[in-house]
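Researcher: Structure for this, please.
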Amino acid sequence: MATPVPQPIAVSPPTLWAPLSMALLVGVLPLAMIGHTLLQDPSHWETTRWGLAFPVGFVVALLIGLLLLMRRRAVEWRDGTLCIRAALYTKRIATAELDLQRARVVNLDERTELRPGWKTNGYATFGFTAGHFRMRKGLGNAFCLLTQRQRVLWLPSRDGKQHILLSLERPQALLDALRSA
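Model: Predicted structure, C-alpha cell format:
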C-alpha cells in the first residue's frame, strides 16, 4: 500500500520582502516618476492631471494584479500526476517522468548550480520566483515555485533536461510519498 501524500501539501509562504519589493518596483517607483513629471512644470497641472489619470490607474491596477497573483501557490498530487500552480503558471507532470532516485531536498544557497537562471516565461521578484527558467551551467529548463531557498525540493526529470524546484513546508514528506508510490 502506498504511503499517503501529506494533505495538504503546504507551500512555504514568501517572506515580507516579496510583496514589499513588488510594491516598490511596480508601484512606488513608477508613481514617483509620474509625480516627478508633474512637478517639472506646475503651470500645466490642470491639463497634465487628466492626461496622467490613465497611467496612474494602470500602475495601480497592475500592482494589485501582480500582488494577487503572488498568492496563487499550490501543489497537489493526484492519480500519479503532480500539479503545481504558481502565479500565472500551471505545470502538470506524471510521477513516472521524474527521476526520484536523484531527487533531493536542497539548499539553493549551497547548491548554486540548481538556482534558476534566465527567465524564459516567469515571474520573479525578491523572495518569489514562479514559472519557467533556464538552469545555470547548461542543466536544462526548470519550472519553479520558490518562496525561500533553504528547503527546496529538487525533482529532475528522467531525461535530465527538465527540473522542478518547489519551496514546501515539508519537502521530505512529499519526496518520501512520491518514492513509495
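Researcher: Any notable elements?
Model: Residues 73-180 form one domain. The helical segments are 17-40, 45-51, 53-69, 171-180.
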